[in-house]
Description:
Layout: H1 2-18, E1 23-27, E2 39-43, E3 48-52, E4 55-59, E5 67-73, E6 82-92, E7 101-106, E8 112-118, E9 122-125, E10 130-133, E11 140-146, E12 151-156, E13 159-165, E14 167-168, E15 175-180, E16 188-200, H2 202-220
Helix pairs in contact: 1-2
Amino acid sequence: xxxxxxxxxxxxxxxxxxxxxxxxxxxxxxxxxxxxxxxxxxxxxxxxxxxxxxxxxxxxxxxxxxxxxxxxxxxxxxxxxxxxxxxxxxxxxxxxxxxxxxxxxxxxxxxxxxxxxxxxxxxxxxxxxxxxxxxxxxxxxxxxxxxxxxxxxxxxxxxxxxxxxxxxxxxxxxxxxxxxxxxxxxxxxxxxxxxxxxxxxxxxxxxxxxxxxxxxxxxxx
Length: 221
């Protein structure tokens, strides 16, 4: 009976880990972002925007002064045993500026943020001034992970390219934004999806599963 109770307790841990997801928000390029819970923020006019082949197209080629962003404010920080994740799939057309399209992520417990910029053939961390070459003319996938919103890992097409740190900031707090970021450059960018949220830490889930399997082995023996 005690062993059975132990098995049930471990199973409860496993289920709790699987259900520990705090939130997961997805924008899949099926409608304009403001119709799906985002706020549109513009400066110096507006970009042309439309949905094409399941992606949001943002075109500011007619005026390099334009900034046109989708922004969402909310608590961003993971708890112990959780992981903050943001991922997006993006193509920046040739003829665009090298840093007009971008994604910014700001933590919640205190002001601090990261910002990544993208051009037709490169991606870069705008605060750390790190550059990565990418193949032009095709979509690329990007993934950002942080256990504590102090340190982070950044991936391009599944490859880890940076182990970095959030930069302190006077006012950047509790948001994620994407789109046309720079006054002084023009671009045409295609956003296939943008997703973010707080999910269970993978290692914690694997540990709970391994414990459960070991427990069943002991019970059967």
